[in-house]
Amino acid sequence: MATLASLVACALIAAACGSSKKASTTATTAAGTATTAKASGKRVGLVFDIGGRGDKSFNDSAAAGLDQGVKDFGIVEKDLSPASGGQNREELIRLLSTSNYPLIFAIGFAFADAVTKVATENPSVNYAIIDSVVQKPNVASLTFAEEQGSYLVGAAAALKSKTGTIGFVGGVDTPLIKKFEAGYVAGAKKENPSIKVIIKYLTEPPDFSGFSDPAKGKEAALGMFNGGADVVYHAAGGSGTGVFQAAKDTSSKGTHVWAIGVDSDQYNSVGDPSL
Fold first, then answer.
1. 3-state secondary structure 202-235
2. Which of 9, 51, 79, 249 is 20–30 Å from 87 (CA)?
3. According to the 3-state scheme, what is the secondary structure of 80-135?
C-alpha cells in the first residue's frame, strides 16, 4: 500500500508514453535494469488488487494515475479487478499479456508470484509491480518507505490525542503492513513515551479480505474508540472506509475523535453519503 502509488504510476506511464511518436524512454527497475516503451497512444494494462476501483484508498490511488495517463498522454488502457478472494490474479495478468498490452501494472505485493511467472513467460512485455520486488529484466519494482510517513502520522496522533490512547487498524497481518505499524508506534512514542497504542489486524494471510471489508474496519475502530482511543490510523485499503464511519458515528454522539487514512486524500471522502 503506497502513499505515492498514483504519482509513480502516472510517472511511469508518462515515461512509456512520450509526446513524440518516434521517442522512447526507459523506466528503471529497483535492480537497475530498464524497460523501453513507445510513444503516445500506447496500450497500457492494469490489474487492481481486491476491491478494485472505488476503495477510496490504495486502488483508487493507482486509478488516478492511470486516468491521468489517459488524459495527458492519450494511452489506450484496460483495467481489471480480481475476484473477491484474489485467486485469479495470475489469470488476469496473463490475459493482458496475451492481448497486446506491452506495459502492464500489477497493483499490490500479492501479485509478486503471478508477475514473476508471467513475466518469465513473456519477456517482450514490460511489467510494473507496486510494493514488491521482482528480479526480472522486464519488471519495474515500485517500493516505498511506508514506515517514514507513518512515523509522522504517529507523532501527529500523539500530539493530538487528549486521552493518551491511539489505535492502528491493519488490513492484513503482513510484513508490509507491519512497516506502517512500526513507523506509527515509533512516531507516537517519540512524542509521548507513555502513550498507549491499540493494534488490530482484520485478517491473516492467506485471507486478504481485510483490505476490502469496511464492516470489519468499522468494528475494529469502534472497539478502539470505545476503549479510550481518540485517534485511529488505518492501513487497510477499502476497509478504511469503515474506520471513517466509526469516527463519524462516535463523534456524532458527542465524543470527538479522529481517523487517519492512507494512499489517497481520504479527507475528501468524509462527506461521501456512503460513510
1. EECCCCCHHHCCHHHHHHHHHHHHHCCCCEEEEE
2. 9
3. ECCCCCCCCHHHHHHHHHCCCCCEEEECCHHHHHHHHHHHHHCCCCEEEEECCCCC
CA 194 to chain centre: 31
Mean pLDDT, residues 145-165? 98
Handedness of CA 93, 4, 147, 213 (dihedral sign): negative
Integer CA distances (angstroms), 229 to 166, 220, 222, 233, in order: 5, 12, 9, 11
Distance, CA of 170 to chain centre: 12
Q: Give the predicted TM-score (pTM) of the model.
A: 0.79
- Give the residues across from 198 on adjacent strands: 167
The C-alpha atoms of residue 234 and residue 244 are separated, in whole angstroms, by 9
The answer to whether the CB of 175 falls within 8 A of the CB of 110 is no
> What phi and psi values does residue 18 have, to the nearest 5 degrees?
-65, 170
* Rounded Cα gap, residues 173 and 266, in angstroms: 22
What are the C-alpha distances in Å from 255 to residues 63, 155, 198? 35, 22, 18
pLDDT of 22 higher than 60: no
Query: What single-letter amino acid sits at 175?
Result: P
- Give the pLDDT confidence score for residue 55 in this predicted structure: 87
C-alpha cell of residue 30: 529497483
